């Protein structure tokens, strides 16, 4: 795993390119669909920084060159017990994804939708790792999806405690949640495999 300082540098160097897009996006929503709650806006900014953090930790965009070099492990549960640290880290890494989705978007109030989205996002990470950014492991897919389930469970338990009016402040207001999540997730991947490696290696000279 990368050092914390390296993770921060790499994730922030990608995140700065989505901040202006998010600002313009919320200005557009304010004019067309109504103003979003400050709680929702702040949580969305935090959520998308978290996505950059996930991709950084998983090695996406670590090098400036991209070549198809798949390292694939398709044996489920092999090494999970002998390497519990990686298993736990993979679960913990995806817990916020399962928490943020139902917190921010009403359409993700069902665990099936959250788990499917988390599974597809994790699968996208594993596919991208075939291009020289790590190894593709079915165990990562399993543990990442399990982490999403844990995150949803945490949200579900908190939702029983938090007042309804507070939870509603974090929810999007008349926004197309599918477009928002899907397009910004794709944009995050694009930044991490194109602009971010260039900034790291050519502007910041980070090895």
What does this structure look like?
The chain has 207 residues and is mostly helical. The chain has one domain. Helix content is 68%, strand content 2%. Strands 1-2 form a two-stranded parallel ribbon. Helix 1 packs across helix 9, helix 4 packs across helix 6 and helix 5 (111-128) runs antiparallel to helix 6. The two termini are 15 Å apart.
List the helices and strands and how they pair.
Elements: H1 4-15, H2 19-32, H3 38-57, E1 72-73, H4 84-104, H5 111-128, E2 136-137, H6 138-159, H7 164-170, H8 177-193, H9 195-203
Helix pairs in contact: 1-3, 1-9, 3-4, 3-8, 4-6, 5-6
Short overview:
The chain has 207 residues and is an all-alpha fold.
Largest sheet: 2 strands, parallel
Radius of gyration from the CA trace? 18 Å
Number of domains: 1
| Lateral strand order in the biggest sheet | 1-2
Element order: H for helix, E for strand: HHHEHHEHHHH
Helix content: 55-70%
Shape: globular
Mean pLDDT, to the nearest integer, reads: 87
Structural class: mainly alpha
**End-to-end CA span:** 15 Å
What is the tally of helical segments?
Answer: 9
Question: Unreliable stretches, pLDDT < 50, 5 or more residues?
Answer: none
Number of E strands = 2
Instruction: Work out the strand percent.
Output: under 5%
